[in-house]
Write a structure and sequence with these properties.
Elements lengths: L2 H7 L3 H6 L5 H16 L1 H15 L9 H6 L1 H15 L8 H13 L6 H17 L5 H31 L8 E10 L4 E8 L13 E6 L8 E6 L9 E6 L12 H8 L6 E4 L16 E6 L3 H14 L5 E7 L8 H10 L3 E7 L4 H6 L4 E2 L4 H7 L6 E5 L2 H14 L6 E3 L13
Parallel strand pairs: 7-8, 7-11, 8-9, 9-10, 11-12
Antiparallel strand pairs: 1-2, 1-6, 2-5, 3-4
Helix pairs in contact: 3-6, 3-9, 4-6, 4-8, 7-9, 8-9
Length: 429
Amino acid sequence: MSNTQIKEKNSWQEVVKTVKTLDPNKLEIIKATLPIVKDHGEQITKHFYKRMFKQHPELLNIFNQTHQITGHQPKALADAVYGAAANIEDFSQIMPVLERIGEKHRSLQIKPEHYPIVGENLLGAIKEVLGDAATPEIIDAWADAYGVIADVFIRMENKMYKTAETMPGGWAGYRNFVVEKKVKESDVITSFYLKPQDGKEIASYIPGQYITVKLEIPGEQYTHLRQYSLSDRPGQNYYRISVKREDPKGDNIPAGIVSTYLHTHVKEGDTIPITAPAGDFYLDLDTNLPLVLISGGVGLTPMMAMLNTTVNESSNREIYYIHAAINSQLHAFRAHVNDLAAGHKNVHSFVIYEKPSEDDKEMKNYDKEGFFSLEWLQQSLPTKDADFYFCGPEPFMKVVNKALKQWGVPEERIHYEFFGSFGKLEEIE
């Protein structure tokens, strides 16, 4: 699928024009109560999830429970509710963000029938957290506001479902894929090559997009869904995902259930149901500006798709790929990138190791020790007149984003993958 097709698919002017409007009196109530809802946002959404899962435990088959434990999901929902309500008079101002959420919803198979359940429990949580401050008039106004917001998502996602189902090789819901090959890329990252069980055509995608995998894990009460970026170029007869094994982080964050299961139990020949590719973070194929790809850790997965695609489709575009890892043992696809750089004069590779091993130091197989910095970036790149794409852990992305802004890179040339909150990186504490 070309960028032009994607842009046509994601033109939401019809959705904005046909959305329901809010009664002026209720709109004033929403505006007046936005600050208090924002102040209590995470408390409301944490209570919302507890309330909803108690009444509808079947929804635990959809939601990532690790994100509940870390507080990631409640914060993301709080930001989304506030952001949508704050822009309810003109959704066109936030359509790119609504699109990001809609793409995730489509990939997770969120359907229109889920919205009344969410609305009922969200309003209940607002009432229970705010107590007497949430008068019947306030709850009534927020009920109507939620109806408007839900209507936008339902209309937008209906278009997304139709596109995913009707495009060449597309499908509705989940489709079974067989693990044709399983390849260890580093001490913690393994690639899975997935081919359709039915042997038919598969949908194309734009590098940077992802799929959702669905796993029924023995001993687990609920189904587990996870979204993984596609890590190779489109146009082939397989999808590839490269999964980092998430080990425990302290006492509060356990090992990743899905990533551990994929690494230790899923074998070549096993079947995994997946949804069609989705996502609003993707490479612009309609420009010949120099391309700068910056990744940290497993954030290299969408970058690999972008790199492989650009090398395959454009012989002239200058490519600068910067990857940051702890050391070479945790650096996936190193040999592949080196081969591309050696075989293509327009491909330039840079490596940052936070804690290089003794072997790394002896081999001098990295360009910088420590961390990414603006000063080093300016010394390494010949120009800032380029398109920048980056992905990695949130702290890493904040550093990269801040550096690019300080260097004066225009916002329209800064692109990043951010699974989470409604706001921009620089707005997130």
